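::Encoded backbone::
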Amino acid sequence: MRIGIFGTGGMADALGTQWARHDLMVSGRSDPGPLAGRLGAATGTWRETAAFADVLLLAVPAAAIGEVLAEAGPLAGKVLVDCTNDPGLTGTPVASRIVTDAHVVKAFNLAHVDVWRMTPPVFGGRPLSVPLCGDDRAAIEAVSTLVRDVGAHPVHAGGLDRAALLEATAAFVIGLWFAGEDAQAILTPLG
């Protein structure tokens, strides 16, 4: 799979490291060279990375999404994985602010970046489940492959209209973590 990574921060690094067996290209608002070097990836402009990739990881701050996608150009037929959260909690979900002709899949936004550095992310003997929200079956399957590549379990959680629920869940759970609570303990185990 050819994966383009939009961004050079923690999520780009953590997920890119897990996907290094694929062909990778990195672009960023800061120099993508150091991250690309660690990943064995090529570097390119936003547009070059978009043209190269079958799947694009959108790992830039929420405020930069519009600018990045405008510079990337047309993305028809591409899969765009949105792992972003908006720390400002503007009330408008990030996923609904993405204007593109790509097939958007919301994923990887519920866990801290350090979880994506785990190989594999297993807790209490159970692999981490990753909810995926998207409207295109082939895009969901492509992202499911990437979820399995990190050692996690993909869960189709509905259409892209449900991405707002993932973002709200992230905001709620992250708030609990910062308050020192065990957010995982709020969900009852099955059986």
Notes: The two ends are 38 Å apart (CA to CA). Residues 119 and 160 are 28 Å apart (CA to CA). The helical segments are 10-18, 33-39, 46-52, 65-72, 94-97, 137-149, 163-178. The first helix runs from residue 10 to 18.
